[in-house]
Amino acid sequence: GTNIPRVTYPVGGGCGALLLEKQSTNQMLYSEQFDNAAWTKGGSNSITANAITSPDGTQNADFLVSTASNTAAKYAYQVIGSTATPTATIYAKAGAVTEMMFYCQGGYGIYFNLTNGAFIAYYGNGASTITSYSSQSMGNGWYRYVMTFNVSVTSCEVYMSVSTNIGGFIANGNGLYVWGAQLEQSSYATSYIKTTSSSVTRIADACYKTGISNLIGQT
Q1: 145 near 89, Cβ under 8 Å?
Q2: In a 3-state reduction of DSSP, which class is residue 30?
Q3: What is the pLDDT of residue 166?
Q4: HSE of 37 in the Cβ direction (CA atoms, 13 Å)?
Q5: pTM for this predicted structure
Q6: Which residues fall within 8 angstroms of residue 113, CB to CB, at 6 or more apart?
Q7: Which residues pair with 148 in a beta bridge?
Q8: Nearest alpha-carbon partner for 81 in 4, 33, 27
Q9: Which of 76, 44, 35, 34 is nearest to 170 (CA)?
Q10: How far is CA 164 from CA 85, 109, 167, 199, 201, in A?
Q11: What is the mean pLDDT for each group of 10 consecutive residues in the chain (219 residues)?
């Protein structure tokens, strides 16, 4: 809200700090509701909504589960308008499935180990189109995965994977947990912006105070 400061805290505890960010827009719809029709489910997949507690502390993270034992790609994806040189973010947690391929159409993707957040391998031309990537532990087994691209992309996609084989053999009923999808036209990731039926823009933060020359002087 207006005139209410945002404070960020280190994972694991510690002193808070004022969070000041630029304006940014999350273009992904229903960023926490992967069961919504905006997200296409493929390869014998289903979504169990609100299956587990997410990084925001409420039970609103979804379970992407395979409903068949086969080698068909198992994924959830959402197509959007072309976004130039964007940054994509997803929060994910291992279930019985411990690898994920995070992918953006046009920019390709990365295989990540969900148990420790480690990079496994690039998919497609990811080595040349992904300028930076990272994973950050959010506690309780959750990691925040980020990719920044030097090309335009048109979708955000989450694949179950086994041994860098998209949708490889996954037994019936296994899956992984997902929450907080974000795609923004930015050279780096900003903090999470929740969406539902439309994109959402967070305006730039600003911090200022007058009349404090006795506290902060010229020197």
Answers
A1: yes
A2: coil
A3: 62
A4: 0
A5: 0.89
A6: 98, 99, 119, 120
A7: 87, 132
A8: 27
A9: 44
A10: 25, 11, 9, 32, 35
A11: 75 79 94 95 85 97 83 82 92 92 94 95 95 96 98 91 66 87 96 97 84 72
2: CB partners within 8 A, 6+ apart: none
Round to whole Å and give the CA distance between 193 and 195.
7
Check if the beta carbon of residue 10 is closer than 8 Å to that of residue 137. Answer: no
**Number of residues in the chain:** 219
**Cβ-Cβ contacts under 8 Å for 217 (sequence gap 6 or more):** none
Q: Looking at residue 174, what is its pLDDT?
A: 84
Question: Which amino acid belongs to residue 66?
Answer: S
Q: Do residues 104 and 153 lie in contact, with contact meaning Cβ atoms separated by under 8 Å?
A: yes
Structure tokens at 128: 């040349």
Q: CB atoms < 10 A from the CB of 147, how many?
A: 28
- Token pair listed for 24: 């940014």
